[in-house]
Fold these 2 entries.
Entry 1:
Amino acid sequence: MSRTDVLLVGLGSTAGLRAAEDELAASLRRAGARVEMVRARPPRTVRTLVLTDLLWALAARAAARRGIAEHAPRALVYSTTTAALLWPRSGDVRRAIRYDAPAAANRRGRHGLWQRPLERRRLRQADLLVPQTGVTLAETPTPHADAVVVPIPVEPTAGVAAGVPRGVTAVTYAANWRKKGLDRILAAWALARSDGEVLLVVGVTDEQIRAAARAAGLDGIPAGVDHHELLEPEVYRERLRLASVYVTAPRREDFGVAQLEALADGCALVTTDPGGPYAALPLARAIDPRWVVADDADPATLAAAIRAAVDDPPVGLAARTLEAVAPYRRAAVDAVVAREVLPRLLPA
């Protein structure tokens, strides 16, 4: 049996993570590697992050064992530090970890009691780290293995013709609504909305958006809110192209691919500044600093930022946002993978 060059051990715990794993596998293939992927089988749902991470780590270890036995890889890439925590013995196989945030940053206190010390060991033992941003790398405990920053690539979809009404005023993706700050968004929207304007909320059920409205102190879902639990990716991107603003108020953002997609498709990005390796934040601030508000800002401040983005967008907005995401385009990411990642995974 001929050896696979790279086995990607995917956690695949969210749609966004699965898409990111698929992108990395495709980039490695375009660089000339023979790549296979195995994904962890989703475990049962449990109440705590400590136990959730344990079950996912066990599932990733089982997936890695299956993949190693079937494909005899020369190198392993674990998607997330969680996937790497309980990695199996792998002989002379080189090991890399691809991640958006370490447990040291997003599993603080009791939520990461066992994950953080084991993570530190894995970060030292790995042959290569592949963080998604420079901030991710800065949050990584030291000492650690050699690292190459490789973002998740984003591409614009088909453009909107000049002068065509955008229809949807604002969009937000709010799966895990507490983390994404949907309560803060709804409170701001109730203040900011003008007649006929629509906020599209994607990723929430009726129950979840009502819970977010209650958390915001509202009597109900504000006027002009259209929400969907799921939209097909192409439908979601079509709505995004027709929106003026992507608005978000995360309490922490680990990468934020939805925000980069919004910029790629010509949206203004109105956001809080929550900390974390939030790739789109400096891009938004550079285009128009009015779009970025403090994480502890009240709803009126976020509402004012929404109105500024809708009523007074920068000249040449679509061209400026597309230029801003250039380092995150697929061709730029492929160049880093081919030049810096693959030679470290498969040294001559």
Note: The CA atoms of residues 153 and 330 lie 5 Å apart.
Entry 2:
Amino acid sequence: MKKSDSALQRDVLEELEWEPSIDHADIGVSVVDGVVTLNGYVKSYAEKMAAERAAKRVEGVQAIAEELKIRFDSDRKTADHEIAKRILDIFAYDVLIPEETIKVKVERGWVSLDGEVEWKYQADEAMHAAGKVSGVVGVSNNIAVKSRPKVTDIRKRIEDAFKRQAGLDANAVTITASGNKVTLSGKVKAWHERKLAEQAAWAAPGVTQVEDKILVG
């Protein structure tokens, strides 16, 4: 039975890991239709040949595309996983970057940043910091900025909710927004009016907290 490409990739990676003459940490393996591509870095020509021999030993390998580069210990380290680690370290020490909400992916020196932040300057700072790391050839900034609630949007939702029920006055409700928090105040005639206003505020884009100070009476 012919091995699948994913099974072949796993077997080649395990063979590289098992071979004592190879430091497999910086070697990547991809497989398409039984053709194995080795890429990344090794420390010597001998290690490069050893990696190729190890891959050829695996049953099911149809051909080898060997794209390994030799990087001596004195060379600057620019392997993808090292670049990613350096970027994460920078994020951890930069108070302007919320590192817990940003994901970093590095492929052949190209950095992709994903996630969500509260402010645009945070996404810009993350992109700037990643771009300074040695070995980075480019940065794709896919970080989304959370939409923030607008008082006009919230008021419109409350007005629409009140209009659906005759006799309710949306002007009795005062709205203030700070960040993603909305505070409702004022005075309404009945509890269900207060509940309508609160539900409408929660439905507005970007709202993560509603403080209801509306009085009933």
Note: The mean pLDDT is 84.
